[in-house]
Amino acid sequence: MFNTRPAVIATIAALSVAAVPAPAVAQASGDLAAVQKHLQSVETMTASFSQADRNGKVLTGVLTLKKPGKLRFQYEKGVPILIVAEGGALTFIDYSVKQVQRWPIKNSPLGVLLDPTRDITRYAKLVPGYDQRIVSVEANDPKHPEYGRITLVFVRNAGAPGGLMLQGWVALDSQNNRTTIRLTNQKFGDAVSDNTFRWNDPRRTGGRK
Q1: What percent of the chain has pLDDT over 70?
Q2: DSSP labels for 71-104?
Q3: Total structural domains within the chain
Q4: Which terms are listed as keywords in the entry (predicted)?
């Protein structure tokens, strides 16, 4: 099996891009307002994901989201890595080396997925495109370009929350390492137990969950 750690780290780095603190009331308009509405409408979401790095290496798994503040990237069997957002932090667990790392997510683009009160206009902008069915939003902190950037991609879908379906995102770190996440089989509103976001600490148990 190829080394999965660099690709996963690149994803975390982009998801943890620092953003400007936002007010509780959204000020978005047009398609940006539609994106805000979608994010506000989603309470739970599950989806299959595929993650590709710039070398073409692909990992797959299942993404689970629950507001407020919970998210889990469960990678395919054989990948000893887990990413969980809970308690205001993004936690990266590598069971192969029994290592746990944490990053704050309060003011990150990932925080927008988990906190509907965030005003995305404070750190995001629409990306022009030729396909009117696609809405792309780029988020970054211009004061800290070293944090990289993330572009969220939506497709217009009348049956999805807020009329948009999150299709995935492209993460670019400060070394121009690109990681692409694509989502399929998106489901919204299903009951998700808080136990889904629990994990075993390999530093204590040596196991994984």
Answers
A1: 74
A2: EEEEEPTT--EEEEEETTEEEEEETTTTEEEEEE
A3: 1
A4: Lipoprotein, Signal
Q: What confidence category does residue 20 fall into, taking pLDDT thresholds of 50, 70 and 90?
A: very low
Computed on alpha carbons and rounded to an integer, the radius of gyration of the chain in Å comes to 16
Report how far Cα 66 is from the mean position of its chain's Cα atoms. 12
For residue 128, count CB atoms less than 10 angstroms from its CB and return exposed for 0-12, middle for 13-18, buried for 19 or more.
Answer: exposed
To the question of pTM greater than 0.90 for the whole model, the response is no
What is the residue range of 117's domain?
A: 5-191
List helix spans (H) across the chain: 5-15, 30-41, 109-114
Provide long-range contacts, Cβ within 8 A and 24+ apart, for 67-74. Answer: 67/42, 67/43, 67/114, 67/115, 67/116, 68/114, 68/115, 69/114, 69/115, 70/114, 70/194, 70/196, 70/197, 71/110, 71/113, 71/114, 71/197, 72/196, 72/197, 73/49
Using CA atoms, how far apart are residues 74 and 77, in angstroms rounded to an integer?
Answer: 9
Tell the residue number behind the tokens 């990932």, with chain if given: 110
In a domain, 57, yes or no: yes
Query: Residue 17 maps to which CATH number?
Result: 2.50.20.10
- Supply the pLDDT for residue 81: 92
Peptide bond preceding 145 in cis form (omega within 30 of 0):
no
User: Per the domain annotation, does 208 fall within a domain?
Assistant: no
Distance separating alpha carbons of residues 124 and 137, to the nearest angstrom: 6
Residue 132, CA atoms < 13 Å, CB-side half-sphere: 1
